[in-house]
Write a structure and sequence with these properties.
Layout: H1 3-9, E1 15-20, H2 34-47, E2 53-54, H3 77-94, E3 98-103, H4 109-122, E4 126-129, H5 130-134, H6 154-163, H7 182-192, H8 196-205, H9 218-221, H10 237-261
Parallel strand pairs: 1-2, 1-3, 3-4
Helix pairs in contact: 2-10, 3-4, 6-10, 7-8
């Protein structure tokens, strides 16, 4: 967009999506920029349905547990939140007031929560984590609850095949056996089934940087970087389309409801 186009948009909305992703390995098949590229594309799809600025600020996220895979770039949570907070201050100066933080990487979750709170507590702006806010509006595209499928797995690869198909190389896709610590392996079925306590305990220990000594970095748990018990070769663009459309439609529904509750120009 040009600067005049941003000025014109401000006559119709004071909302801005800040996509937050990461630069980290995504198995043998996915680009390092999967999370960032995907979340930007998702933001653009939302903006096609409702007036909102999409403002990518930073490509890396917090990914220390992927550092055994070359190409991964990780930044401290403190750096990430500060860059986005200062970017929000710039956008506030131009007239944007409502910030929709769209997170494409689970490792940024705590950083995003802090960023949302800083904007709400320290500025004239208002912020929400968009996927969380949109959850009550979400229908369909429920993920299977019986098999473990997370980072660079079938679901995520399917979304990449839909959003950035020219960057996914399915000819080399391969799922490696999971090599979890015995006590984590034991509770894996409960995590896959969606048990909230098992999941919370599992993720408190799993996917942590090698420097923590937990033995749960990505390389410790999967040779290829795919964190899934499913065959990643079964990923499809059609599944990615269904999952993406569900999240996009829910986000649009939330944004439209917020616009009703607080019309543009409200003091």
């Amino acid at each position: 967009m040009t600067s005049p186009e941003v000025v014109d948009l401000l006559t119709r909305t004071d909302m801005v999506i800040l996509p937050i992703g990461s630069l980290e390995q995504h198995g043998l098949q996915g680009p390092i920029g999967t999370d960032t590229l995907g979340v930007i594309e998702r933001g653009k799809l939302i903006a096609q349905k409702t007036d909102v600025l999409v403002a990518p600020i930073l490509y890396p996220g917090n990914s220390p547990y992927h550092m055994a895979f070359p190409g991964t770039i990780t930044l401290p949570a403190e750096t990430i939140q500060l860059v986005y907070f200062q970017a929000a201050q710039s956008l506030l100066a131009h007239g944007f007031k409502r910030f929709l933080i769209l997170n494409g990487h689970a490792g940024n979750a705590a950083t995003v929560q802090y960023l949302v709170d800083r904007i709400n507590q320290e500025t004239a702006g208002m912020a929400v984590e968009l996927d969380d806010a949109a959850q009550p509006f979400r229908t369909g595209a429920a993920r299977p609850g019986s098999v473990f499928d997370r980072h660079a797995g079938v679901s995520e690869t399917s979304r990449s095949l839909y959003l950035t198909p020219n960057l996914v190389n399915m000819s080399v896709a391969r799922t490696a056996p999971l090599t979890l610590l015995p006590h984590l392996q034991k509770i894996l079925p409960e995590v896959a089934a969606g048990d909230p306590t098992a999941t919370r305990v599992f993720l408190a220990e799993a996917l942590k940087a090698a420097s923590t000594g937990k033995g749960t970095s990505t390389k410790d748990m999967t040779e290829t970087g795919v964190w899934s018990a499913l065959d990643v070769k079964t990923a499809t663009a059609e599944r990615g389309r269904t999952e993406t459309e569900a999240s996009v439609n829910a986000a649009v529904a939330f944004i439209e409801r917020w616009k009703q509750l607080r019309p543009l120009g409200t003091k």
